[in-house]
Specification:
The complex is a heterodimer of chains A (159) and B (787).
Chain A: E1 4-10, E2 13-19, H1 25-32, E3 51-54, E4 57-60, E5 73-75, H2 88-95, H3 105-118, H4 124-130, H5 142-158
Parallel strand pairs in A: 1-5
Antiparallel strand pairs in A: 1-2, 3-4, 3-5
Chain B: H1 28-33, E1 49-55, E2 61-67, H2 69-73, E3 77-81, E4 107-108, E5 114-120, H3 123-130, E6 134-139, H4 146-152, E7 160-164, H5 167-173, E8 176-184, E9 196-201, E10 207-211, H6 216-227, E11 234-238, H7 253-266, E12 270-273, H8 276-282, E13 289-297, E14 303-315, H9 321-330, E15 341-349, H10 363-381, H11 385-392, H12 419-430, H13 432-445, E16 449-462, E17 471-478, E18 484-488, H14 497-509, E19 516-518, E20 521-522, H15 537-564, E21 571-574, E22 577-580, E23 583-585, H16 587-596, E24 602-608, E25 613-615, E26 620-622, E27 626-639, E28 645-654, H17 662-680, E29 712-717, H18 742-755, H19 770-785
Parallel strand pairs in B: 1-12, 10-11, 14-15, 18-19, 28-29
Antiparallel strand pairs in B: 1-5, 2-4, 2-6, 3-5, 7-15, 8-13, 9-10, 9-12, 11-20, 13-14, 16-27, 17-18, 17-24, 21-22, 22-23, 25-26, 27-28
The chains are: A alpha+beta (159), B alpha+beta (787).
Bound molecules: FE2/S2 (inorganic) cluster (FES) (2 copies).
Chain lengths: 159, 787
Amino acid sequence: MSNIHVTTTVNGDVMEFLCEPDESLMDALRDRLSLTGVKEGCGSGDCGACSVTVDGRLVCSCLVLAAEAEGCKITTVEGLAKGDKLHPLQQKFLEHAALQCGICTPGFLVASKALLDRNPNPTEHEIRYWLAGNLCRCTGYDKIVRAVVDAAAELRRTA
Amino acid sequence: MQDTAPKPATTPTRITGGVGDPSPHDSAHKHVAGTAIYTDDIPEPPGTLHIALGLSTRAHAEVLALDFSQVHAASGVVAVFTAADIPGRNDVSPIGKSDDPVFATGLVEHYGQSLFAVAATSMLAARRAARLADVIYKDKPAILTVDEAMDAKSFLSDPYTFGIGDPDAALAAAPHRLKGRVRMGGQEHFYLEGQVALAIPGEDGDVTVHSSTQHPTEIQHSVAHVLGLPFNAVTVEVRRMGGGFGGKETQGNLPAAVAALVAAKTGRPAKLRYDRDDDFEVTGKRHDFRIDYDVGFDAGGRILGITFEQAARCGMSFDLSMAICDRAMFHADNCYFLPNVRITSYRCKTNTVSNTAFRGFGGPQGMAGIERVMEAIAAKLGKDPLAVRRANFYAAKGKSAGSGRSLTPYHMEIEDCIIGELTDELVRTSGYEKRRAGIRAWNAKSPILKRGISLTPVKFGISFTNTLMNQAGALLHLYTDGSLHLNHGGTEMGQGLFQKVAQVVAEEFQCDLSNVKITATRTDKVPNTSPTAASSGSDLNGMAAREAARTIKMRLAEMLAVEAGTDVEAVRFIPGRIIAGRRTFTLPEAAALAHARRISLSSTGYYATPKIHWDRASGKGRPFFYFAYGAAVTESAIDTLTGENRMLRVDILHDAGRSLNPAIDLGQIEGGFIQGAGWLTTEELVWDGKGRLSTHAPSTYKIPACSDRPPVMNMSLWHGENSEDTIYRSKAVGEPPLMLGISALLALSDAVASVGGYAGDAALDAPATPERVLMAVQALKTRVAAG
Ligand code: FES
Ligand code: FES
């Protein structure tokens, strides 16, 4: 099988890579572009650890082929902060101690950002159900939900 | 020199991040940025080979032939390894039993057992090729379940018993008597980061292994045994894990040993990372238990005599099952004084994966057993289960001497029991009594939806029951610029251990936490370590680090006393400064001065837990240094037509002693509760008739999700300190909160019982999935209809 050449915009930068036809976007981001903030929890679309947005749409990158990313705009957790300045979601996850081992955290942040982008004022209930596709084995989700509520309020204040 | 600097009235500042400060996890800023490096994120050295295991597809069979011709022919394959390629011992048993082969030879004893390894140029190529081997089996009869093993008397070892008093006589004489059987399922760890190891060959046959492990020393030993090397040729490093929960205490041995074997044989770096489905099949889980009880009690619900027969599914090998089953026995009493008791434990050998450590280490199963007994007694007497629980509590702290109600079944006096007080406070803050009455009134008017509530207590023994494991080492360097470099034998799996230990060092030096560099656990820095397990991480490593800090502080104090012409006692470490007589030094000044005076600025520290001893033969001793306590109230609702259910509210009060870091401790409590609730409600392991795990991915195995989190979750820390001299009087907090989840099961039980007008015990087995809830509802309805 010959490799496929892909050009995408990742976190604002135009990037090119070669990938196998059956390679997942998750593997390409991790192995070809060294964006290891994208995590693999299951490889089957059930845990959300590999969450990224493709043209603004939240996806499990383990279920997307790398070749499908041609011409798309991809955002990973590495693209949330502006230089040294953390995104309010990142800041609130820190403040609320909304993480333990931290390996689910990138996925939660990307998924939460996708929620707030479309709904800046979600109810707690909406947050809980939106994030139901992201598994965390360490926390009880309590602080994660609080952090998202708080970050949403902060973003509305500063918007 | 004074150890804890009394702060003069004029002290202007306090250090940031000292003991008791709720500082975030040490890596939190990296977690949120996606820059925290886990083992699989380490940049692969050029030429790295990827490995996949070839797994047995039989539960119990002779292996007649292995043909790898198609494997070799597959694209990307570099080599195939079997037992014949192992230069040392073909075993990774954590206790040297030679019953956990790296690669099975001749006989496979569970579905998913490792038979061979394929090394290839990519992970996918290795995984695909591993499926292509042609294996010829000759099936043997398989024993899969606890019931089958009990019938066949298939045990790893002889049954083990301990107890006190004369339970048979007490049972015979008791005014009330009940017998019952409790079943509870196992649990998959589902650490979000699966098992992974990267081995890098070095000079002279040495090897360095990056492993996601709670027990680097055991990885070192396993690798050395398999490769036939001395321990000093193997170095193991782990910076962090993406969750462990006990599942990385021994289960990392196999992938590390295989990665090291491939590295040694090929001279190339080699990585083995299970994909999630393999991880489910290859690694051990929490033991499922069947517990039979026979209890005699008085009209007040007080237990007079009781026997337990605990049968655990251990799987095909020992692993840690002996100690786990012992701990289940140690927790068969939970918070309750049992004047006449006999606990018998059966360690069932089955043709399933060898079960292993999982947060609580058997304790949760033992505890769930007696909590069900409490429910049964209450149902029989028509009492609130809480009243029965209170009637049986051990004598309170300060009142135990002469009470006659403080001796455990293993002959240890309980002197620190605070469960009565703690329960009283939780009853108050949660409004338990009023809510319970309200729920009963609500249920009377709600024909389909029913609610339930339960308060359950926890008493958990802290220490490894294998006394020799209760030791730890640390290594601390003070550099001449005043910065500190900290290392210890504990591992970081998300529980915040590194931060807590660093806080201890900051507190000792009265410097900011940011001045203490946290470093990866390595077997070449601190040797011969115990696993980070049994909740012992901060107790042991915190103490060892404090010892190291105090050694360096004493050297500085002696030097500064000479420098300032004062006594060593007059040297004090206060926030940001060291005062020696009339002179003041900063830490960098003191460090540079010590270097100039040729005084060592590096020290090890060592700690061994005092007071503990355990004699297994006589069933007597003090296996635990102290106990951690807690209690939870869960309110849940069920739909009696579908069995669907959910938690509505949880109130928790938990004892972490004087907390080293309340933010981290509350995180452990929240996570522990949810994990325990998951074990007993949604998480169901199903094996098919051939011994194959059917629920081998998150698509079918359901851990709690964000939407399962109860809408109301109130958590607080108990305000007392540890009465034993632990690190700053804190208490271990890793495992105990898991057992708070028992209240989630019993709240469902209470809701089910409403269907029968509370006339009997719902006897809901775990996990209480919707199917089981529905079946229990149906059974009660049938019972009621039959009168
Ligand atoms: S790794 Fe993609 S959803 Fe789990
Ligand atoms: S913090 Fe470990 S999985 Fe979420």
